[in-house]
């Protein structure tokens, strides 16, 4: 019996199966109403992978890639490669996202740094309290721990 043929019997015995279990045995699962969330997660994952692939690229104010980036240029470029168009600046990107709580954040969400009501920096959440971002002049695209609690989160739709 192949792994794929065992999926129904595994589900019948267990009652339910996690997505990881199904993936491990080559199965799939469809959940009504979650198609949009699944495609958003796929897009966000792709954007995160694109940002990570730019590790070491130099920061340059106003640059949108493919070899140099500023913070919002990196997020714009990454999501464009994932199939989604974002506005140019961090503040405009914040206004275009669905705002979410820190408890709801997931890899691929945008992390906005702010002072009062002014957004001044953006990165892509990588999980475990870290972001991929283009920090400042003289630096490079890198993975870094979020250094302040003064952040807002946004999900690209």
Describe this protein's structure.
Helix 3 (35-53) crosses helix 4 (71-81). 29% of the residues are buried. This protein has helices at residues 3-14, 19-24, 35-53, 71-81, 90-96, and strands spanning 98-100, 110-115, 118-127, 130-133, 142-145, 151-155. The chain is α+β, with helices and mostly antiparallel strands and 157 residues long. It has a six-stranded antiparallel β-sheet with strand order 1-6-2-3-4-5. It contains five helices and six strands, in the order αααααββββββ. The chain starts with a helix and ends with a strand. Helices cover 35% and strands 20% of the residues. Strand 2 and strand 3 (118-127) form a beta hairpin.
């Amino acid at each position: 019996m192949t792994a794929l043929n065992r999926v129904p019997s595994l589900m019948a015995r267990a009652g339910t199966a996690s997505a990881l279990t199904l993936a491990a045995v080559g199965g799939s699962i469809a959940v009504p109403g979650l198609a949009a969330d699944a495609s958003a997660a796929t897009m966000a994952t792709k954007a995160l992978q694109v940002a990570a692939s730019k590790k070491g690229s130099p920061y340059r104010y106003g640059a949108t890639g493919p070899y140099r980036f500023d913070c919002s240029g990196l997020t714009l470029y990454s999501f464009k490669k994932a199939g989604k168009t974002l506005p140019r600046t961090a503040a405009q990107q914040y206004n275009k996202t669905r705002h979410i709580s820190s408890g709801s954040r997931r890899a691929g969400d945008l992390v906005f740094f702010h002072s009062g009501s002014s957004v001044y920096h953006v990165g892509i959440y990588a999980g475990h309290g870290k972001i991929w971002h283009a920090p400042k002049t003289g630096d490079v695209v890198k993975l870094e721990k979020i250094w302040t609690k003064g952040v807002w989160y946004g999900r690209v739709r």
